[in-house]
Write the structure tokens for this entry.
Amino acid sequence: MITIRPEISTDIAAREALLTRAFGVKRFRKTSEKLRAGRLAAEGLAFSAIDAKGKLIGTVRLWDIIAGSAGTALLLGPLAVDCKAQGKGVGAALMNHALAEAARLGHSAVLLVGDEPYYSRFGFAPEHTRSLHLPGPVERARFLGLELEPEALDGAEGLIAASGRLAVAEKKAA
């Protein structure tokens, strides 16, 4: 049995260790990571999957971005599941929970860089990002979008830019 809950501060070390195991330290060089750098996840959109023993076995976060002419949107990622829990529906549960919560909070679209065969089952498709561009290298076929509101990405074009809360500003306010 797993529980999906909002991420809490005590999850951070386990989350970072999981992400390093899943993606290695090269993840910090990826274009998507550069959009997340120095920012906090979108309000209410960072989730942890916890097993029956209370161990973090999965994570997903969504980030505020500007999707060119489409305006505000979210960038999903990274999604990671502990290797011992893979193939048990943890990733799908995290995805479904995160997308449902994003829709409930009124967000209109979600973008990500990932494997289309995996993410297409959640509705992600490359046609939503054809005229959008990330500010760095990316395999074009892996740049996918999902409309939470119909036509949210219709005609969207231009550069993706980071937005949302700065991590530094949050620390200074504390």
Strands lie at 2-6, 46-51, 56-67, 72-76, 80-81, 109-113, 132-133, 143-147, 158-162. The CA atoms of residues 123 and 139 lie 19 Å apart.
